[in-house]
Amino acid sequence: MKSGILFKSGLGVLVLTSMGLSQTFRQQRVAVPGTINEFLVADLTKDQYPEIIIADTSSGQLRVLLGSAAADYAQSAITNYAKIPSQLLGVGDFNKDGFVDVAVRPRTVPPYFSIFLGKGNGHFTGPKTVTARMGSKFKCGTVVDIDNNGLADIVGIVGDSWVSFTNSGGLKFKAALHKQIDLSPSDSLAAGDFNQDGFTDVLIGRPANTNSQFYFFQNDKAGGFRDPIASAVSYLDEILASSDLNGDGKLDLLCSNHAGEPPSIYLNKGKGAFRFLTYLPRNPDGVAFPEYGLAIGDVTGDKKPDVALTAGEGLLVYQGNGTGRFSYLKHLGKLLSSYSSSGSKKNMALADIDKDGDLDLIESVHIFGPTGSRATLHFDNPLGRSMPRLEVGRDGAGTSGLSRTTSDIVLYRNGEAEQTLTISDLSFSGLRYDPVFGTVTFNLGFSFQDSAGDLRYFGAPETTDNAFLSFEIYLQFASPIYGQFEEYEVTGSFLNLPGLTSGRVSATLTLATGHLNSSVSNYSMNHFRVCSSNLVFSNFLPL
Q1: CA distance 509 to 511
Q2: 19 with 354: CB under 8 angstroms?
Q3: Sign of the dihedral through C-alpha 458, 459, 463, 467
Q4: Where are any strands of DSSP class E within 100-234?
Q5: How far apart are CA 365 and CA 312, in angstroms?
Q6: What is the dihedral of CA 537, 541, 542, 543, to 10 degrees?
Q7: Which of 80-84, 109-113, 170-174, 393-397 shows the lowest per-residue confidence on average (mean pLDDT)?
Q8: Can you give the C-alpha Rg of the chain in angstroms?
Q9: What's the pTM?
Q10: Do residues 508 and 442 make contact, with C-beta atoms less than 8 angstroms apart?
């Protein structure tokens, strides 16, 4: 299957093929400190277990989660330098030493971009900075080989133009600003051999309310590019990915449309021209299509390209039939929020993380972490767990959400049994409000069936490290007359049930509301559910 992958697997960049037909995926969380702005996947250590390279904007670090046979990404390597990184441009071999390097756009300009040279063990030297008088930062960029000399180059969009940096060796680059057309509305491009002449071309989509355009910049085989060939298309927003979708050897396109609309598929007619074929089908869950990450590869093992994309809540997987058309296959991680703090498209990937011959899916997600009151309390737990402890996150009415979010990596391991978490027999009684302390106290119990035994408490005071309960308490005050919704995520040792696949949990909980009012006329609890430590959500239980 031909795709827009630009570097050989000998450098560690992943070849998107798969061997075994499977439609089951086991969900596995990798807790990641800091904030994931973007991530890329590549084999940095040449052991065929790919690493996950993360731009951590909260700490200014380049964080690498090391691959292994266990595929648990428990070990990491950190590169910590000032002003890095804001955006991951891509991976490639910039100094021809056989190791994968990483190009990043720093937080400030200058420098224009920086290169971290790989050591072959997941660590990097650097950064080697590159300056240029280009004015604006990269809106987007990617790593290519423009002149086929085996050295990685960079192309990207800056302001109303696009730029190419051609690597002549010794990390010296020739910069060229291409200003033939106004690209100010554009913030995505695709690079690949679109005309089958053996050289990398550049394709840029210019969105407009009407008369959107593709601009094809053909490689002149001398380190530069010819004037663009324009072709009109229906409305488009961004080019998401390029790959041979219909088996004719030419790179086709998947493009995003209006927010919430399915991506459109364009087939390559040759000579820089494309024709619209169809849209990705809508999914039965009615999930909208945000303009986030998308990857193409053979997920189902039938040697035809499939599509996986982030969908606001989890991932959508579509199976290709080899003609450029796709059918809906699976919705993974339905209640997880796909995450990129910058709205980047680099928030999901496909890779064989466990070297079993099929492609697994990787996604960055965000979780609302507790920032409100915390309390230690006693409760009745028939399972006999000792040292009761409770950690609470609270979100009161009138706020836009919990004030702290963290981001994690979620793996969907192809061909492994999917987890199920089911709760039943919810008991809820004794709800009372203390106007002196502004707390609510109530008795809670539920039965659970957990196929993976993932109701685990790790002891940290964030739900992002633990299994947790999620629910909402509604308080109606009589004087003054108003209602107050309190949303909670609660975790603690009463959920520390690793390996236990069934049982019943009961507790008496006391939670702060942040409100002092002596007249409460009504109470209720809504949308109760449980989330495992691998971020598998249970069903909702109504009261």
Answers
A1: 6
A2: no
A3: positive
A4: 101-105, 113-118, 124-130, 138-144, 153-158, 161-169, 172-178, 189-192, 201-206, 212-217, 229-233
A5: 9
A6: -130
A7: 393-397
A8: 25
A9: 0.88
A10: yes
